[in-house]
Structure formats: C-alpha cells, structure tokens
Amino acid sequence: MSVNFLYPEYEVERNTNRCIACRVCERQCANEVHRYDEDLQMMLADESKCVNCHRCVSLCPTRALKIVKTNHTFKESANWTKNNIEELYRQANSGGVLLTSMGNPCDYPVYWDKILINASQVTNPSIDPLREPMETRTYLGKKNVKIERDANGKLIPNLPVNLELTMPMLFGAMSYGAISYNAHESLARAAEALGIYYNTGEGGLHQDFYKYGPNTIVQVASGRFGVHKDYLESGAAIEIKIGQGAKPGIGGHLPGHKTMGDISRTRMIPEGSDAISPAPHHDIYSIEDLRQLVFSLKEATNYKKPVSVKIAAVHNIAAIASGIARSGADIIAIDGFRGGTGAAPTRIRDNVGIPIELALAAVDQRLRDEGIRDNVSIVVSGSIRNSADIVKAVALGADAVYLGTAALMALGCHLCRSCHTGKCNWGISTQRPELVKRLNPNIGSQRLINLMNAWNHEIKEMMGGMGINSIEALRGNRLMLRGVGLNEKELEILGIKHAGE
Hints:
The chain is an alpha/beta fold.
C-alpha cells in the first residue's frame, strides 16, 4: 500500500461571504478540485488535486477564490530543500520517472537580465521610429552568394531560397497532440496574418491546416510521425529536429491517451499507442549522415524549400553548429535549456544543457571565425520573454527567434506545469473536446497578433534608440550591448564589454 507523505502544494481560499455556490469553479476545473456538498450546502475543495492554473479564480463571478502557496514547511536545510524532499517522496511512492512541463524553473543565471542595451546620443544620433523608416523585415536561409552578371552586364538571379519574415519572430515547434487543434489553428492563423511562420512540431500536419502551408515550417523528427510526400511539400521550409532545450539527448513522448482520432491519423500511428520518438535519428551518426538527409529532403521537394536543423544548446555547441553549417543546411535552430515542452524528465530538464545566450554567442563567433557565418541563418529559442530579449539575441548574432511558451501564454497559458496530464483548463495542451473548445481560435489568433505587433513596435523603438534603422544592421552588433554583474569568462564568451567601458 502506498503512503502519501506530501501536504498539498497549494491551498484554496474561499471567501464564504462572497461565494454564492454558483458552481462555476466545479464545472471549470478539469482536475476535479471543487465540489458542491448537498448536505452542507456549500462548496468544498480537494486541494491535493490543485495545479494552480487559476481557471477558477479567473471565472469566479464574485471573486470569492484565491489559490495560495501553502506555508507548510519541512525542517529547514540548505541541502535537502523542499523540492528535493517532495520529489524523493513522489518517486518512493510511484517508482516512476518524474515528468514536468513548461521549462526549467531553477535559479540559474538569466543572462538576458545581465545585459544592457547601449543608446545613441549626439555624434551618432538616435532615430525616431514614428517619423523615420525602420526595417524589421528579415530573411532566413543561405546568404553566401556572389554577384554574377551575364554577357550583357545584367545581374544573374542566383539567390538561394529564403524565408521572408516581416519581423524577427516565429512560433516555435509545438506538435498537434501536445497542443490542441484550436491552439494550432490560432498559431497558424496568426502566422499568416503577420507574415511570419509557425512550426508544426514532430506530430505531422492536420489536413485542415494545409491551407496555411505558405506560413508553415514542417518538422521531421526521429520518429518520422506524419512525414510523407504531401506533408513535406505543404510547408515553406523543412526542419530536422535533432534535439530540444528542455531535454537534450532525449526523444519525444506523447502518451497514448492523447493519440486518438485525428491525432492518430495525422501521426499515422494506431489509436491509443504511445508516440515515442527515439533519442537519436537512426540514420544520423555523423555530419555526413546529416548531409545526406538534408539533401534527401531538398531533392524530395525540388530544392524549393530551405532546410533547418534544430539542436539543443549543449557544451560543444559551437563545433556542432560548424558541422551543421557545412552539411548543406540553410538554418540552424538552437534551443536553450530554459525551453519549454509538454513533458520532460525533471532531472534532464533541470540539469542538462546550457543557457541560450552563451550558446548563441559561441556559435555566432565560431562561424564568423571560420568564415561561414553566411552559410546559414541562426534562430534561437529557450525562454524569450519580451522584445528586449529579442533585441539582445539579434545583437548577439541571431537572425530571428522562436517563441513557444510566450505564444502559449498569449493564448491563456498560466504555466501550471501540468501539460503532460492532458487536463489543461485553458484548452491549450489537451485533447478533451470539452476543454479544447475553451480556446476560441478567433480570440487566440488575435491575441497572438496583438502581442507580435506590440513587440515589433518596441523592437523598432529600441533600435531607434541605438541609432540603428534595420534589423540586419543590428545582427551580431555586440558593440551595442554591455554586461552587468558578469565575470570575465562570461563577458568573453558573450563577446561584450562590461558596463562603463
């Protein structure tokens, strides 16, 4: 018999003077925290089931509810923290691997917050983005072309295939199955309206969304779920997913209870079966093998689409990226260790990988040193939280950024970290029809459009303050960055000076 030694992490505070027992909280909670007691004629709560998603708090008509973190504590210990003790108890109770969602919450340095943006003043005046031209359009793909002319002196059009983005932002890889149909539709519609792209993730592409193909990046992962000729031809670009920041060296896993109906058909696997993609691609064990897959995909699509390779930020990232740049890939996507995912082993998430800021700077510098920076574009992800993070990423060498968690938060995600349960109360990471319908794609796509336009405007303002009028002029311009509270080695890797220098 199992024994639960854990006190609930959250407590439901219900103001009985305000509560009218309307039972909205009961109907809205997929975790069955709230219930109405007929005998007592009052609402009760089973707090052990609460994940602090705030659905009940948000929809309570009388504001009678609050979810508070419990003040129950273990005996203090700098070594055996509350998290260490609770996680040990859970594993002793279940015998299983700890799973979690939505990125690394540990107290590691966030380098974005230790980097400041420089500004222009007199000799290099600032630019007013409201009255002067400001360009945030960017292109992803190879740029290493020579100017060639024909016998009459006319330019020969020899530009490689590139993706054109109206702003340096894309929606990151989130598979159909991990997130809902309505979440995917919201991302696709917003990408089309904004003139950017969204990524299908490794779950294939629902037939209804082929119409968004010109704004879609289709992914080929180790499991090859949903990969076929029409799928490859439907998107504007193809991404080979080798790793992701939340779980470097680990494959994907979609539980069987999520692989039903359209998800089963889209992924081309039996209903109810776990979709487990292998950790490695079993046809990639060298850069030569990767090159073969890159050109196989290009051949299959008549060389009309750029091919991206997505990798996790790990300790030898610069050398890995150098090999990828020589493999024939057009884009390198790098995912830092704070990247979110629907389900990751907790130990992997919290202890493997490196920050995206250090990985990006190291890769950009290595490719520049080797004279191959224009062979590829660089897209980074892993907790891009606001427009300032984007400006700093571009100045460190990125061409654009992937947005995952930020996009889901725009749709209503409250970071309750229970995606893997399939009980998302906001209709995002669930396949239960009664929950999926809570996310209206009309509202969801508009909220994404609002967020991207707001961030794009802020990017223009920050560039104007630096005296820079195009995103291309900002790329790799580390002179516009200064560090605060960083040691010499960190400054060296980032390639920036300390504030005051």
